[in-house]
Amino acid sequence: MALTLLLLIAAPLSVVLTLSDLRVTFLVYHLLLCLVVPFIHSKIRRYGWREHLGLLGLTRPSRAVLVEGAATGLAMAIGTVIVFSWSGSALLEPGRVAQALAAWGVEPAGSSFVFAVMLMLNGPAEELFWRGWVHGRLAHVRPRALALGIATSGYASYHLVTLQALFPSTGARAVAFTGILLAGSWWAWRRERCCTVWGPLLAHMGATLGYMALYGQILKYGQR
Are 203 and 80 within 8 A, CB to CB? Predict the structure, then answer.
């Protein structure tokens, strides 16, 4: 449990401390803390592959779970694009977003690599960690709402920093952060009910696709 508590603090903190270069964030947060450390922990505890995958929530999903996850992800992607496109600069100012991305090392010339890594790594790594490993480590915490709340709060916490940089007003940040909390809570609940991480993982990938499409358009617009 001590390792779990440590990572609940270290994982969000690693994003905050490395955000000046997203490539370092990918390495430290997404790869090392979200994926490698849980694997090393399982090896130290002498867990077999089946036990490790079970702790990550990578149990065999039903077709209904996969369909639900994919459909939810598609709905999140489309909804994100519609809401932010409709709201215009009230929620996202192209200049501010481009400035924030540049501060994180995302320049238009090298954005393809960052976008590809975000699309392929962000959703899977975070779900395997927050709704996978952390959820599994908190399996015996009661009441269950407390365990789910702890994991979701840890997941949402670092977004306060990224939203501060991306969004132009307190109201816009509150809207975005509420969406992140609701999404994280929904994914945690589905992980709890379905006993697998596959649904949340697919849904998270869809959500990432939606906002990365927006950021891509903003960077493309800024080059004109």
Answer: no
Q: Which residue has the tokens 């991480």?
A: 197
CA triple 98-72-9, angle to 5 deg: 60
- State the DSSP string of 99-136: HHHHHTT--GGGHHHHHHHIIIIIHHHHIIIIIIIIHH
First to last CA, the chain: 52
* pLDDT, position 165: 94
Nearest-angstrom CA–CA distance, 156 and 162:
11
Say which residues have a Cβ less than 8 Å from residue 181's Cβ, sequence separation at least 6. 152, 156
Q: Is 15 helix (H, G, I), strand (E, B) or coil?
A: helix
Residues 6+ apart with CB under 8 A from 43: none
Residue pair 76/183 in contact (Cβ under 8 Å)? The answer is yes
pLDDT digits (tens, 9 = 90+) for 139-172: 999 999 999 999 999 999 999 999 999 998 999 9
CB hemisphere CA count around 155 (13 angstroms)? 32
CA distance 175 to 184: 14
Mean pLDDT of the chain: 92
Cβ atoms within 10 Å, residue 210: 20
Structure confidence by residue, pLDDT tens digits, 60-98:
999 999 999 999 999 999 999 998 888 877 788 888 888
Q: Which residue has tokens 């392929």?
A: 120
Degrees, nearest 5: CA angle 215-217-219: 70
